[in-house]
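ARCHIVE CARD
Drawer: 12
Card no.: 0347
Subject: one protein chain, sequence and derived structure
Cross-reference: see card 0346
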Amino acid sequence: MAKAATKEMQRLDKCVSHMTGMSRQEASKAIKAGLVLVDGEIITLPTSKVSINSQLRILNDTEDVLEAQFADEGSLDEAGAGSIEGSMSVADAFKKRVYMLNKPDGFVCAARDKNHAVAISLLRSELHSDRLQCVGRLDIDTTGLLLVTDDGALNHELTSPKKQVVKVYIAMLDKAVPEKAVEQFAAGIKHPEETKRYQGAKLTILEDRVATSVVLHNAYRQTKIGQYLPMIKPAQQHFAAVAVTEGRFHEVKRMFEMVGCEVKELVRVAIGSLTLREGIKLGEYEQLSAEDIELLFTNKDYSSAELEALLDLYQQNVKLSSYKFLPMSFRQSLQEHIAAGKDSERANSVYSAVGAGASINFEALSAQIDSASEVDLEVEVDVDADADDADAEFEDDVDAFDEVDENGDIRIY
């Protein structure tokens, strides 16, 4: 696994910028004001070189720009000055970050897009979020485990076909997968739009179950505001898991196409031995540890039982997710039927609130349905008017990661 080297000496203003999220100009101003201590000594020259083993401490001042950013974390004395609790090493300020994001449907893996929200926008509250990049690409309608990082070397290793990092997907299909497809996947399938065969992939046919979107649709129908929705017959849906090591354009979808199946929904549940975690709702993320990153490069042969458990976990996370991140098939159906509802005024009012980003308490909802009592939808509106325009916040990254493989093909995972 690649390890990005950090220079032994760094400019002080650069260190402060990395540590705080301030611009270089703001960092320079703070240094000149005597608010930055290096190993306990105040340094006022922004261009000073400091060792990556040095400890930085940044003081607050009621008249300084730092106060707004750090007053809650530090403590001010009677004179209005103070310091951040503890200190940070220069090396820590330059550490690379890797996040696990549960990507929702409708988000694209790009730095910016004029027509769709970008996955990176979900991490815009992180320090220096403009430096983060998706590791490979998931299609706009593919959900699940997406890695986001500012470590270019790690990004390249994980997406390079030479490294043979296994990515595991679970697909909901329009029909049962024929048993012979297992051997076809293993041998490598040739798609007419590809010049060469796909590398061999492991296909595991899973037990049939009801699709997540159907479960959510029918649960929502039990609420007062969802009474306009028709009951969808809980027909059995077909699921299969596939482990690939390449990541070519629409690879998983095209392989299923060649065995006569159409992918209706697709989710990535694992990379190497790292799996999507319980409790990470669609649109949420968490930072990975060094141990987690090691798991990415440790391939695992998942059993049918393990894959079934990963599908259960993902569906449970979906049920806990905010309405705006629920499967597109569910949201579109809901919009269509509410629009056709008899009580249009109330329906539109409710939909406006839900469409703003409500969080549906499905655990409470399920309990009420099970007890056959009257069901009410708990709506907690979390309006984010700028969500669709978040990609406008990102500037061009001169160190953009490679998005093509050794043959010049775009990597889309």
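Annotation on reverse: The first strand starts at residue 9 and ends at 11. Residues 62-86, 346-360, 362-413 have pLDDT under 50 and may be disordered.
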